[in-house]
Amino acid sequence: MRCNVGTVPVSGKCSVNAGDVVTIEMHQQIGDRDCSVEGIGGAHWGPVQVYMSKVTDSSTDLGAGGWFKIYADTWAKYPTGDGSSDWWGTKDMNYCCGKLSFAIPSNIPSGDYLLRPEALALHAAGAPPPNGAQFYVSCFQLTVSGGSGSVPPTVSFPGAYSDTDPGIYINIYQSLSTYIAPGPTVMPGGATKSPNVLSFGGNCAATSTVIGGGSNPTTAKGTTTTPKTTTPVTTTKTTTGPTTKTTTTPVVTTKTTTTKSTTTPVKTTTTAGGTGGCQSPQYGQCGGIGWTGCTGCSAGTCSVLNPYYSQCV
Ligand SMILES: [Cu+2]
Description:
Layout: E1 14-17, E2 21-27, E3 48-55, E4 68-73, E5 75-76, E6 87-88, H1 89-94, E7 99-103, E8 111-121, E9 134-137, E10 140-145, E11 191-193, E12 207-210, E13 215-217, E14 238-239, E15 247-248, E16 276-280, E17 285-287, E18 294-297, E19 302-306, E20 309-312
Parallel strand pairs: 1-10, 4-11, 16-18
Antiparallel strand pairs: 2-7, 2-15, 3-4, 3-8, 5-6, 8-9, 8-10, 11-12, 12-13, 14-15, 17-20, 19-20
The protein binds copper (II) ion (CU).
Copper (II) ion is lined by residues 44, 121, 134, 283, 311.
Family: Belongs to the polysaccharide monooxygenase AA9 family.
Cofactor: Cu(2+)
Subcellular location: Secreted
């Protein structure tokens, strides 16, 4: 829950300035940064949230100290369909080259930090604990310069979440009137974004709202520019452990504006899978109600997690 399994600190640190916009990337397969491939595939819908922890040395720290939330891109209701049709943070990530951008708050002290983006996949989260929600986390080792103020109140991992939290133990295949993301509120000076992308070709540029006023550019669109106050962060590459499949690579980018795309998933009554004779990759979706993609598996076997979701495991 802190920094994923099978991970250890590495020697490098990424230097950033307080206030910099950082972009993290998540991809299904190691080494694949193809923007035409879903960043986190297989209907892994849920919120994306980002935490930081002040540490003495980010190249050795294991994250046992306190964490505070700096960013949240969680949920927004789509006019039709059930919760799986709604806007989610992981849809923003999925259809935007696996990228999510957010600012390092300017009102935190300078020094070393661990940065912990967390994608929470809820496609099987309606099953009773300990089955259900899937957390995809990585930790990045930062040194922040130019900060000010003090560290906000913190939580611990484990400890911040309960397996029965309403945003963790939830069936998203029903109409949702609200969604309560797990964990503490975003710190003042942090930011939230309302998710706004439902498919490839959606508008990946959007602005997040700073808690306490103002806004930040959050998502790179097409060409990447380096903002004047930003130091590019290109060194850390964190590979997740054996139970997950994503790789996250931080890079610094910029930019803005919003719109909404409107794709409604086609509903069918298939339970074992769709029409494809093709093969999904390991950890990919291979069946479930509404699934029209590949029903075979190039690695693993197609296993039913719930009526809406079968996965190559
Ligand atoms: Cu999964």
